[in-house]
């Protein structure tokens, strides 16, 4: 992914992965789970958020070895 142009899915995935990383950082540093604090412990809402962040993480890992279809011809480093 180069050039600063990303599709909407890439932007959402990046946002969710970033939010998940910040949440885990808060857990590690301050023992505060932000998702749990706002949505409750394993409520339906919290489970949805955790699931979305998990799927985003999986997509981000896949993007390390496979180019996103939105990058037509712009994935030289992942051949």
Q: What is the radius of gyration?
A: 15 Å
Share of residues in helices? 55-70%
Supply the helix-strand structural class. Answer: mainly alpha
Strand content: under 5%
Shape: elongated
Topology order in helix (H) and strand (E) letters: HHH
Mean pLDDT: 87
Oligomer: single chain
Termini distance?
12 Å
Describe the 3D structure:
By secondary structure, this protein is an all-alpha fold. It has one domain (8-78). Helix content is 62%, strand content 0%. It is built from three helices and no strands. It has helices at residues 8-30, 34-39, 44-63. The chain is elongated and about 45 Å long.
What key attributes describe this structure?
3 helices; mainly alpha; 79 residues
Short account of what is shown:
This protein is mainly alpha-helical and 79 residues long. It has 3 helices and no strands.
Write the layout of secondary structure elements.
Elements: H1 8-30, H2 34-39, H3 44-63
Helix pairs in contact: 1-3
């Amino acid at each position: 992914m180069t050039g600063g142009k990303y599709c909407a899915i890439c932007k959402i995935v990046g946002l969710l992965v970033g939010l998940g990383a910040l949440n885990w950082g808060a857990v590690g540093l301050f023992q505060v789970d932000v998702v749990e604090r706002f949505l409750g412990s394993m409520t339906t809402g919290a489970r949805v958020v955790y699931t979305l962040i998990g799927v985003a993480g999986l997509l981000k890992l896949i993007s390390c070895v496979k180019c996103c279809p939105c990058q037509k011809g712009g994935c030289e480093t992942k051949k």
